Amino acid sequence: MKRQLNMQEKNEWIISHLDQALEEGWIKHYHQPIVNTLTNTLVGTEVLARWEDPEMGMLYPGDFIPVLENNHLIYKLDIYTVRKMCATYAEVDWQKDVVLPFSFNLSRQDFIYCDIYEEIEAAVRKYDVPRDFVHIEITESMFTDPATQEKIRETVSLLRKTGYTVWMDDFGSGYSSLNFLKDFFVDELKLDRDFLTNFSQRSQDIITSVVDMAKKLGIHVLAEGVETKEQFDFLRKIGCEQVQGYYFGAPMPWEECLENCRRQGLVMSSRMQNTYLSQIGKVNFVTDSAISLVEMDFQKRQGYILYINDYYRETLQEIGADQIPRVFSFDDLNFSPFYSSLLNSFLRAQYSEKEEAFTAVHGKNPVRFIVEKIGHKEGKAAFKLTLISVISARDSEEQVLLNKINQHLYPLYGSMRLFNTVTNQYKEIGTSSSDKSYSKIRTSVDGQRSLAIKLWAEENVFVDDRQRFINFIDFNTLDERIKGRAFLTDIFRVKQKNGDYQMTKYNIITMSDFSEHTYLFYRDDIAPESRLHFKETEVELSNIVHDIWSSALIESDLRIFWKDTERRFLGASQSFLDFYGLKSVAEIIGKTDEELQMNILNEPFRMEEDKVLREGKTSTDVIGTTTVKGQLYDIRASKFPIYHEGKIIGLVGYFIDTSSGKNNAKFVNEKMKIMNVNGLLETILNFETNRVETGQDYALANISITNYQRHLATYNKQIDTNLLRTIAQRISEKLSLGQVLGHTTGANFVLIYPCKDMAQANEVLKKIAQVIQDIHEIDGTPCTLFTESNVTLSTDTTGVAAMVSHLKI
């Protein structure tokens, strides 16, 4: 029989029996479904506590959560929830069972009365839970106390940096939600259920605006409190990608929750499917463009229409065209030139990772289709299809502007570009045909654009002007730099077809009268007499020699270096720095080969350099082995003395890479671009030879990914290959000169490196292990990596064979 208590007695009961309830398992976890609106897929659950007390009966959150909050005990419940939920993952079969992420709420007190980050991390590590399966819900009220605000902010940032997703719960319920988003970063907004309580047009307009804002900020959106089909359909239409509420079920025990979802026909998601849906969820449906989302199954040769907005339907009606069937086979798309072009665009976009576009007659009128890949998984890819009616585009204000530019400016300046710094829309204007200039619209990805500018500048802009050019063309800072001005202009030396550098003026003009944040960018060649070239009659011979030497150091492929009489570097060519991955010559100046640990076998080079400096002999084609980003390279080095007033003051040398013996399939894992077992055996032999000759100790460390098999179980083989390649790449980027990286089997990596003692060896190993654990994403796919490692010093073994025995093969 349920025990009857008044309010005060009940509160005291809760306080005094909390520890027992946690220990005895009276606190149960109920699950409420979280559903993807685009695919009707169960993508996760929110975990909610219920207290099933043997004396008090069922206690709901409203009965005990406020009591625990008021008595500063809520952190115990939250820690229990994390540990209990993580423990369930240790019991699942990742290949057979339904395994979904869970979300749970944190309290402000969790950040005060315990180290909640360490508590979550400990549970995740103990039970090998992918961090992307743990969604942490916080509220803006947690940040209202100035005394704890900074600590909470730092912890939340650390959680996100470590790979957890952080959701802002009850968004819109407070008075400063928008201000919160200005100062804090979260991965998902949970719209407060009150938005749907009064489902009026005004409420719908507000929800639409919030979803639009969130998508522009790169934040996912979930709506709670969904109870009707009308609400669900509306949320799906505006691109609110996830919903939660009684429409799909009340909170229930896990098995009951799953059974209820199956009865409703919901598809159970997988880890890969969730990643795929998350990629698609970045698309903003709140747009004036005519868009549809199409999924292409390249294995089954079928396509599926996932979404079509009203503008798309209206545009089809306007041009008198039929809609693509909701489900179609690739063979269906080959019956007309239009559908054949559409299919080819899908195929090109699948492999190019770029927007693909074509213009064709569809229905009775010409239209332009832009195809953009937005997500991918095993054998499937999702695309956003944008439809543009060429007829309506011709009459737009935008087209009028393009026509004017083509008519009046193009004959004077040639190639021009319009760029919008907010939308990243980029239009090339390089033809008198207005139709063709309009057809060149494409969206530029900021990272790709920045890289392209940098590469172009390195190839075409004079080295002394290069960084200034990159800064001038930086569209990320353009709005601020041009504020209050009509234009920006600067002059740079730009390479011409014949190899000369010509002074070229670049101009950026604001087009604010046409569209805010839109700029016209073009170049204006200065008179040819401004070109830079040598004229022997006008320049002293010493200046010519200096310029020739400078050009050789900057432009030549020769890896040139020069040293003082103590064999310390004084300088090097750009090619030398690039070969070793050095950012600046300052990294080597004043140091010897041995101090830099550039070469595994130092004696041959040291002996030859001593002859050059002490005897004035020229050293030619001395064979040696050097290390670059974890790999061995064979080189041949030549060196000769530098004389000043009859005395040797240093040496100049260069080397060539002859690494075909090391850098090939016999010694290198071609997929990962690091040493294979044969390469590692060769490395140990070289390090041991150098130890005998110079006394330089070295270490061999095995680093294994402990949850590699679980990763295999949740992702396909291609993702697995990319994972190993990414790990190898990230480690290689962090390696110092003299350190060699290899792979043996499975997910076991080997690092061989010089060191002076075990303390230094462990310090290097700790940094490399952290590099691996900091990898939280592979090609857009979340991952959680844990490592174990061991290290052996060469001085603790007895020769090559003993060191080789420590390789984990």
Provide key terms for this protein.
809 residues, alpha+beta, eight-stranded mixed barrel, six-stranded antiparallel beta sheet, globular
List how many beta strands DSSP finds. 35
Oligomeric description of these chains = single chain
Q: What structural class is derived from the secondary structure elements? A: alpha+beta
Beta-strand residue percentage: 25-35%
Could you list the spans in which at least 5 consecutive residues all have pLDDT below 50?
402-414, 430-446, 527-541
Radius of gyration over C-alpha positions, nearest whole angstrom: 32 Å
Query: Mean pLDDT, nearest integer?
Result: 85
The termini sit apart by 64 Å
Biggest sheet details: 8 strands, mixed, barrel
Give the neighbour order of strands across the main sheet: 1-2-4-5-6-7-8-9
Number of helices: 30
Query: What form results from the Cα inertia axes?
Result: globular
